[in-house]
Amino acid sequence: MKATFMYGAGDVRIETVPDPIIQEPTDAIVRTVRACICGSDLHPYHSLPASGIGTPMGHELIGVVEEVGSQVTAVAKGDFVIAPFAFSDNTCVFCREGLNTACIHGGWYGTPETGGLQAELARIPQANGSLVRVAGVDPDTADESLLASLLTLSDVYLTGYHAAHMAQLKPGQTVAVIGDGAVGLSAVLAAKQLGAERIILMGRHQDRTSLGVQFGATDVVAERGAEGIQRVLDLTNGEGAHAVLEAVGHLPAYEQAYGIVRPGGIISRVGVPQYEEAPIGFGSLFGKNARLAGGPAPVRAYLEPAIEQVLDGTINPGKVFDRTVTLDEVPAGYAAMNTREALKVMVKLA
Amino acid sequence: MKATFMYGAGDVRIETVPDPIIQEPTDAIVRTVRACICGSDLHPYHSLPASGIGTPMGHELIGVVEEVGSQVTAVAKGDFVIAPFAFSDNTCVFCREGLNTACIHGGWYGTPETGGLQAELARIPQANGSLVRVAGVDPDTADESLLASLLTLSDVYLTGYHAAHMAQLKPGQTVAVIGDGAVGLSAVLAAKQLGAERIILMGRHQDRTSLGVQFGATDVVAERGAEGIQRVLDLTNGEGAHAVLEAVGHLPAYEQAYGIVRPGGIISRVGVPQYEEAPIGFGSLFGKNARLAGGPAPVRAYLEPAIEQVLDGTINPGKVFDRTVTLDEVPAGYAAMNTREALKVMVKLA
To answer: How far, in Å, CA of A126 to CA of A122, rounded?
Structure first.
């Protein structure tokens, strides 16, 4: 099969490798229908040291089950499924609490063992927990916009949803979303779903913030840093936002977050932090009792109700996709996301 | 009157200064019955640069109202009152949300404007919000242990309570408390009140941890650092604690906290951070969706029910006091707390 590998910053290649096979009785093999490129894939695209060994790429897909191991009962050959970006058994103590990204039998794609999902075929570990069937949809005949929205449930929309969920939003509150990438826009849509009254989107790319307004943003702040902080304070009677959803992952976005969070409010991060140390002392979080939450989204825990919302048209998160490429064109897809020509790139398998 | 001033690290002096007077119609003057020395007073005791101008000290007292300004209606001359360690109007938007330490008309004691509370008399700003009457108690005849417990409601017990409250404890959960100082022991007592099933107290002073066990600790871990982390993991099936109440304020205590917090759990800090930057990236908080909460305790918001609990004997937080000094002996009280000869020192006014 063909699959995507990264050999260093900016060096993405499509290669032909052996088809994955069932290794454990809990595995399934899925034939990819749609995959996509994640904002987090751009972090290694900027910084991965050059290597003679390629890193398998991709962690989002919808597809059709080709084969299942002897212990797989939740899905069967021919099922149309969504694969959350982390695999999990969905039965361990953490999964039962809705924190599938801490599953004791779980893990991440994009390792030599599990491979990446920007590929024609994928081996899905712990398939009983890691795949969710979408009943009543035939991927060969389904509307492109439906497929796009279902694909966002693999990661991007439900990562935005996780930010809003962990912020413990209450109806009527003011939310600020930092970042107008696909996760930030998804966080806007999720905040709206969860009852936020005012949603301030901080981003400076007008084509993107326009989609944010479609998704429910009531205000757009293009300024950054001290100026952006002041704008948000001005918009909130000097108080700041009850919840700040940080969908970037770079330190300046976090610094902006504690500048605009209301005393007693919550900063909820879903952009993978590209830093380890950051201010959390009296002058940033402690003095105003600001809280910090977030992490890798336990997409699996949110998946079934979100599928319903997509199928019944309540939400249409697939609008974040603005470009579609073939698997052979994936390197160009990375380049387009990197230069911000594309917001989010879908990969359509043949 | 006599009052306490600090002129630099280790240099605490009792001086005679003019009696405070009503400056604003919202002020009250209170005659101190009992004050005390706070663990947070030891931070400047270690590090305050020497100066020719003394810093007024103290932020905890119970006392009797001597005089009130023309707009003060909540208390009257002769009332026996508790003063929370931060003053607040208790009516602003943040006070109404229970975050009195963010009061837009509030502030801290120990500044040249407001003075300190380790003094014979104190000017209390925003007295309608900042003082709470304790009905039915005559401080001249009340039991010493009752006065001690009421005094803890000015800060130390309700600071421990804030840690437990912000950790959103659910009955049956496992809590780890870092620090066997008076706040840590108070956090144990509060966690027990809030239904924690297992309370692991991390501290190495056996006389203190013994009181912690009286307050409800089920396990004591004397080890620190990597060894202490491993002990807590061993005690929790490798999972860590649902809530970690950090009652120290130094960076190693925070590092211990993220080492022992369970995936999805909460670190709640009430020790005033003696650091600004600390790890919060993938390897500390983000990867396991650990949350961070805490800050200066809005004691005022918790005060009335806590007074009831002290009066009816449900809680006896005053046991944290193990030494009583006169105002003139306050410098010796600081020294005794600094060398850990005393856990917490009460100041008994003549």
So the answer is: 13
B278 vs A281: CB contact, 8 Å cut-off? yes
Q: Is the pLDDT of residue B71 over 90?
A: yes
Give me the mean pLDDT over the B215-231 stretch. 97
Statement: residue B350 has pLDDT above 90: no
Q: How confident is the model at residue B173 (pLDDT cuts 50, 70, 90)?
A: very high
Q: Give the integer Cα–Cα distance in Å for A209 and A229.
A: 18
**How many structural domains compose chain B?**
2
Domain coverage including residue A92: 2-155+298-348
Structure-token pair, residue A298: 């336990």
Tell me what pLDDT residue A350 has.
78
Q: How far is B263 from chain A (nearest CA, A)?
A: 7
Query: Which residues from A are below 8 Å from B when comparing CB atoms?
Result: 93-94, 97, 99, 101-102, 166, 239, 263-264, 269, 272-273, 275-296, 298
Residues B324 and B214 in one domain: no
Instruction: Choose the final residue of a domain: B272, B294, B316.
Output: B294
Mean pLDDT for chain A overall:
97
Residues A257 and A302 in one domain: no
Residues A15 and A3: beta-carbon distance below 8 Å: yes
Q: Which burial class, exposed, middle or buried, applies to B10 when counting CB atoms under 10 A from its CB (0-12, 13-18, 19+)?
A: middle
**Same domain? B21 vs B141:** yes
Which of B273, B294, B315 is the endpoint of a domain? B294
Residues of chain A whose pLDDT is less than 70?
none
- The dihedral region occupied by A295, where left means phi > 0, alpha psi between -120 and 50, and beta the remainder, is left
CB B159 within 8 A of CB B105: no
Q: What is the pLDDT of residue A72?
A: 98
Sequence-separated (6 or more) residues with CB below 8 Å from residue A239: A233, A262, A263, B93
pLDDT digits (tens, 9 = 90+) for A55-77: 999 999 999 999 999 999 999 99
Rounded Cα distance between B253 and B283, Å, is 17
A249 Cα to chain B: minimum distance (Å): 9
With an 8 Å Cβ cutoff, are A286 and B294 in contact? yes
Looking up residue A129, the CATH number of its domain turns out to be 3.90.180.10
- Residue B61 has phi, psi (to 5 degrees) of -160, 155
Question: Rounded distance, CA B294 to CA A292, Å?
Answer: 10
Q: Identify the three-state secondary structure at position B279.
A: strand
| pLDDT of the residue at B167 | 98
Verify that A176 and A130 share a domain, yes or no. no
DSSP B341: S
Same domain as A290, residue A167? yes
B230, burial (CB in 10 Å: exposed 0-12, middle 13-18, buried 19+):
middle
Q: Give me the CATH number covering residue A192.
A: 3.40.50.720
A198 has which bridge partners?
A174
Asked if A115 contacts A29 with a C-beta cutoff of 8 angstroms, the reply is: no
pLDDT in tens, B82-141: 999 999 999 999 999 999 999 999 999 999 899 999 999 999 999 999 999 999 999 999
What is the largest distance, in Å, between two alpha-carbon atoms of chain A? Answer: 60
Q: What's the pLDDT score for residue B308?
A: 98
Q: Check A273 against B296: CB less than 8 A apart.
A: no
Min Cα separation B4/chain A (Å): 25
Q: Rounded to an integer, what distance in angstroms lies between the CA atom of residue B208 and that of residue B344? A: 11
Cβ separation of B278 and A277 shorter than 8 Å? yes
Same domain, A289 and A328: no
Residues B149 and B223 in one domain: no
Query: Is B151 found in the same domain as B10?
Result: yes
CB contact under 8 A, B292 and A291: yes
